[in-house]
Design goal:
single chain; about 70% helix; mainly alpha
């Protein structure tokens, strides 16, 4: 190598490494986009499964459940499920 020559092997290696990083970044971005699409699809399917008859049907079922429910407040911590069963029975 002469005095005026510049060593380009380091620059070529850095450029190749940069190109590899860009390729990996592109692959990661593509995978992230695919995962977002899959998540949106699953959320859409789950929403349709949870509410198949529309909101009117779910409102009616909530009201029916509420009509059979009772609220119990101010219960001591030592109060067990078996003891409550004995009281209600």
């Amino acid at each position: 190598m002469e005095e005026g020559d510049v060593d380009m092997t380091g620059a070529d290696a850095n450029e190749a490494e940069l190109d590899d990083m860009k390729k990996r970044l592109k692959e990661i971005e593509d995978e992230a986009a695919a995962l977002r699409d899959m998540q949106a699809k699953v959320e859409k399917e789950m929403g349709s499964v949870q509410d198949p008859g529309g909101s009117g049907a779910s409102q009616a079922s909530r009201e029916e459940v509420d009509s059979r429910s009772i609220f119990v407040g101010n219960v001591r911590l030592l109060f067990t499920a078996s003891f409550s069963y004995l009281l209600i029975r």
